[in-house]
Write a structure and sequence with these properties.
Blueprint (H helix, E strand, L loop, with lengths): L11 E8 L2 H11 L3 H4 L1 H6 L9 H26 L11 E7 L8 E13 L6 E11 L5 E12 L5
Antiparallel strand pairs: 1-3, 2-5, 3-4, 4-5
């Protein structure tokens, strides 16, 4: 994580890839989204998806896991360099969540994040607010997931 002043609109980071297996799709669905096309291959084939489909919430959760892992990686790099450790704040929310195409069992999704906007917080001068477009692209190059997420980022100097 970096200070607000170190960030620029358009900065992009690759977060990593994840392969959605049938077993993981079903395990997530049983616990969090028990719809027939997430639980059974045949039901998935008969659905609009054409196969066992991952829950959109599963896809978003994987994206969040990769964001946190990349933040931890960046913190470790900063620590090894002797740089200040910058801890991000909470997220005030997101918008424009889209599941563009189904993610089927066996699909590998590559996630990335690109800074869309930056602004100082009017009510908390020690924080800036970042908006980033997080996306997932399948192995065929198709956009399958996108969300515009916001997060508080500490400022090096208040105001």
């Amino acid at each position: 994580m970096r200070f607000f002043e170190d960030l620029q609109v358009g900065q992009r980071r690759e977060l990593g890839s994840y392969t959605f297996t049938a077993e993981e799709i079903k395990r997530f669905a049983v616990q969090f989204d028990p719809q027939r096309f997430h639980l059974d291959e045949e039901e998935g084939r008969r659905s609009l998806f054409g196969g066992l489909a991952a829950s959109g919430w599963h896809i978003g959760s994987v994206c969040m896991k990769l964001i946190v892992a990349d933040n931890q990686r960046l913190l470790e790099i900063a620590r090894l360099r002797g740089e200040p450790i910058v801890l991000g704040g909470p997220s005030p929310g997101f918008r424009d969540l889209r599941w563009h195409k189904p993610v089927l069992a066996g699909d590998t999704i590559s996630f990335s994040s690109e800074i869309d906007s930056l602004r100082a917080s009017a009510s908390r001068p020690e924080w800036g607010i970042l908006q980033a477009r997080n996306t997932g692209i399948n192995q065929h190059g198709d956009l399958v997931f996108s969300v515009l997420a916001s997060a508080f980022v500490p400022r090096r100097n208040e105001g």
